[in-house]
Design goal:
The chain has one helix and ten strands, in the order H-E-E-E-E-E-E-E-E-E-E. By secondary structure, the protein is of the alpha+beta class. The longest helix has 23 residues.
Amino acid sequence: MKKTIFALIAACMAFVSCDLIENINGGKDKDTIVGTWESTSISLIYDGETVTMGPDEIKMVWEFKEDGKYVQTSYSYDKDGNESSDPAQNGTYKTEGTKITITPEGKDASTGDYLLKSDVLELTLPVIEGTVMKIVLARK
C-alpha cells in the first residue's frame, strides 16, 4: 500500500513540477527561437569598424513561427523620439546547428550564425559583401 501511495505522489509531483516550470517560463520553450523577439542592440561591422545603435535609435521585432516562417518589422526614431516603421518583412527561416538561413519573400537566402542563451538571441547575418549585421534580441 505504501508503495502505491508513494508512486501516486511521485507521479503527481512530476506532473506539478512540469506545469510549474512551464508557468515560470511563461509557457515558452527556452531551447527554441520560436516566439517574438525585440532588439536590444544592432551593430554593423565593416572594414574593421563597428557601429552600434540602441533601441532608442533603431529597433527590430522578429517573430519566428513554428512553421518555419518569420515576420520582421523595423522601427526608427528621430531626435524627438517620433517613431516610424518600415513595412513588415515576411519570409522563411531554417536553423541547423549554430547556423540560420533567412529567406525574405522575393529575395535570396542569407546564411549567418545564431546563438541562443535562454531569453537572449544573437543573430550575425551578412548584409553585403564584407559587411555583417549583429542583432542582439530579447524574448518578449
